[in-house]
């Protein structure tokens, strides 16, 4: 496997039509921001044959069409792409990330909307209100979307309410369910089986295929969960 | 101007070349499992990237309510048109009122029924492929059911005296050697696991669908260091190894990201062969470099370009 290193950034092929630019080996704000900057740069200045860029926690995957990439005679296709990406990375363009959105997600906590809220509270020896308070007072960062369209991997869960997944996963979790799974929290965009502890549900649709971008949340967004009542849910719809 | 589904078959969906440019939002690519057979079907009708019907293991029975031209490619489902054998791998004129009956695939698993101008369903995010989990694309985001009426456009009969020999493009077999490149975590697997991976014949389990193929063998693949990975991009052909130690090959409907170690990656050019395997098929793996994989792919694409020029 050819691995090319540019200071702390490494390149490696995912397959014969995609390569990974690896920015770090752990989840961190710094790595996330570097990825956000570079993602914007590569979307503004794609190379011929580039299909799309997919950022994740520590890397960006670049998909390309082998038939369209232009290469120098002295280089392989892979090498010419890496050379181009290196030149973009060296310029190290900074984008204004302060414009990132802060989005409120309304959540009805507990009851039929959050059947595991009571368990999470008793697991930590806290009241349900305290769990809601700790879950909804944090500002979270959307590190990446994956698993399903609109499913956001969030950073920033208050460690004092991190809760292990259920031993037996539920067969169906309704769309909009807000859960805690270990150190993570997030919202299921669709009805799905799943093992997270469900503490609430949002009426907000997260996948909007009729528009582009097709998701309510995007990588880099900051979000807050805001507690609402079941009555307010009905008004929202 | 429609096609009526008399029998849906085991699992028939509308697919095209795939839904690109939305993976960063978690939207999967989908598209035809065997892109090569799909693409040849399109070329035979002198069109590109139109929605075709992908059929699986047991084919459908369809009635054409208008004159059109079709091309059937992929696995051999012994198609009958008005009770007479219907040739595959060539354009076939179909009169209004005709019935196309497909049986069980003799060899191979997936067939493509391409229709002139494509199935007229709305595109979503640049593709007409069915994405089951999100219930979008294709025909109302789902597999075809009895009684569905699929919109098409009429097309006159046309010159149909040419055909493609499928063996020039794709191998239909249940005992295959699939070429791979090393996965991003290849080095993390024990020497023993690496050697086993390249020397054993894996069996395709019955748990094999558009999302992924589970493979079975006598040994569990293990890493020298058990360490949780951070989720990152995965793609069609990624072979990942969950804690069970039995590999899973991700297929056309795979998720955009995954967190299991990736031992290997099937080369693009061999994905069609993989897509045509039936459950219990035997699969061996052999490594090639990224550069070789790209050369193999380019040769395959050049062959298609020749075909396009010829038609």
Oligomer: heterodimer
How many DSSP E strands of chain A?
14
Return the string of H and E elements of chain B: EEHEEEEEEEEEEHEEEEEEEHEH
Mean pLDDT value of chain B: 95
Strand order of the largest sheet of chain A: 8-7-14-6-13-10-11
Radius of gyration of chain A: 21 Å
Number of contiguous helices of chain B: 4
Keywords (chain B): ATP-binding, Hydrolase, Nucleotide-binding
Protein name (chain B): Biotin-dependent carboxyltransferase family protein
Organism (chain B): Lysinibacillus louembei
InterPro entries (chain B): CT_A_B, Cyclophilin-like_dom_sf, PxpC
Summarize this, please?
With 237 residues, chain A is of the alpha+beta class. Chain A contains 5 helices and 14 strands. In chain A, the strands form 3 sheets. Chain A has a 7-stranded mixed β-sheet with strand order 8-7-14-6-13-10-11.
Structure in words:
The complex is a heterodimer of chains A (237) and B (311). Chain A has 237 residues and is of the alpha+beta class. Chain A contains five helices and 14 strands. In chain A, strand 4 (50-55) and strand 5 (59-64) form a beta hairpin. The model of chain A has no long low-confidence stretch (mean pLDDT 92). Chain B is of the alpha+beta class. In chain B, 14% of the residues lie in helices and 28% in strands. Chain B has helices spanning 35-44, 191-199, 271-275, 290-310, and strands spanning 2-7, 13-15, 52-56, 61-64, 68-74, 80-81, 84-85, 91-94, 99-101, 110-115, 149-151, 175-182, 202-208, 212-216, 232-233, 238-240, 248-250, 257-258, 262-266, 282-287. In chain B, the strands form four sheets. In chain B, strands 12-19-16-17-14-13-20 form a seven-stranded mixed β-barrel. Chain B has a six-stranded antiparallel beta sheet with strand order 7-6-9-4-1-11, with no helix packed on it. Chains A and B meet through strand 2, strand 4 and strand 5 of A and strand 15, strand 19 and helix 4 of B. Chain B: InterPro entries: CT_A_B, Cyclophilin-like_dom_sf, PxpC. Chain B: This is Biotin-dependent carboxyltransferase family protein. Chain B: Residues 24-304 form the Carboxyltransferase domain.
């Amino acid at each position: 496997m050819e691995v090319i290193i540019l200071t702390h950034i490494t390149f490696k092929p995912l397959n014969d039509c995609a390569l990974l630019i690896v920015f770090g080996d752990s989840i961190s704000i710094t790595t996330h921001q570097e990825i956000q900057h570079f993602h914007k740069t590569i979307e503004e200045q794609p190379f011929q044959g580039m299909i799309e860029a997919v950022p994740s926690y520590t890397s960006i995957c670049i998909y390309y069409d082998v038939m369209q990439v232009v290469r120098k005679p002295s280089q392989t296709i892979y090498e010419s792409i890496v050379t181009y990406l290196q030149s973009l990375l060296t310029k190290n363009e900074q984008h204004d990330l302060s414009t990132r959105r802060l989005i409120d997600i309304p959540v009805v906590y507990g009851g039929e909307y959050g059947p595991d809220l009571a368990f999470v509270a008793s697991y930590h020896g806290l009241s349900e209100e305290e769990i809601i308070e700790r879950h909804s007072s944090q500002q979270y960062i959307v590190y990446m979307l994956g698993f399903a369209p609109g499913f956001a991997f969030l950073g920033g869960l208050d460690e004092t309410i991190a809760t292990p997944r259920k031993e037996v996963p539920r067969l169906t979790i309704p769309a909009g369910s807000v859960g805690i799974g270990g150190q993570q929290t997030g919202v299921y965009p669709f009805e799905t089986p799943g093992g997270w502890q469900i503490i609430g549900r949002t009426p907000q649709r997260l996948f909007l295929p009729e528009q582009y971008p097709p998701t309510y949340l995007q990588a880099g967004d900051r979000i807050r969960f805001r507690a609402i009542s079941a009555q307010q849910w009905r008004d929202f719809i | 101007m429609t096609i009526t589904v008399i029998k849906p078959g085991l699992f028939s969906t509308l697919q095209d070349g795939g839904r690109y440019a939305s993976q960063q939002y978690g939207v999967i690519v989908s598209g035809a499992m065997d892109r090569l057979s799909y693409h040849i079907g399109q070329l035979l009708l002198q069109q590109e990237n139109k929605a075709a019907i992908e059929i699986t293991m047991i084919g459908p029975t369809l009635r054409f309510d208008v004159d059109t031209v079709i091309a059937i490619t992929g696995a051999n489902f012994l198609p009958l048109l008005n009770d007479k054998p219907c040739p595959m791998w060539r354009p076939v004129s179909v009169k209004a009122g005709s019935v196309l009956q497909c049986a069980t695939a003799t060899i191979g698993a997936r067939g493509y029924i391409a229709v002139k101008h494509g199935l007229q369903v709305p595109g979503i995010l640049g593709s007409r492929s069915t994405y089951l989990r999100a219930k979008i694309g294709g025909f109302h985001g789902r597999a075809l059911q009895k009684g569905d009426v699929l919109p098409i456009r009429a097309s006159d009969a046309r010159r149909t005296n040419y055909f493609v020999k499928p063996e020039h493009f794709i191998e239909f077999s249940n005992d295959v050697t699939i070429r791979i490149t090393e996965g991003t975590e290849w080095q993390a697997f024990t020497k023993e696991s690496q050697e086993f991976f390249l020397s054993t014949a894996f069996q395709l389990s019955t748990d094999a669908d558009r999302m992924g193929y589970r493979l079975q063998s006598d040994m569990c693949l293990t890493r020298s260091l058990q360490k949780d990975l951070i989720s990152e991009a995965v793609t069609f052909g990624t072979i990942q190894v969950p804690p069970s130690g039995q590999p899973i090959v991700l297929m056309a409907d795979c998720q955009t990201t995954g967190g299991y170690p990736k031992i290997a990656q099937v080369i693009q050019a061999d994905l069609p062969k993989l897509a045509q395997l039936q459950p219990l098929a035997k699969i061996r793996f052999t490594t090639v470099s990224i550069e070789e994989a790209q050369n193999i792919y380019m040769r395959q694409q050049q062959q298609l370009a020749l075909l396009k020029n010829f038609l």
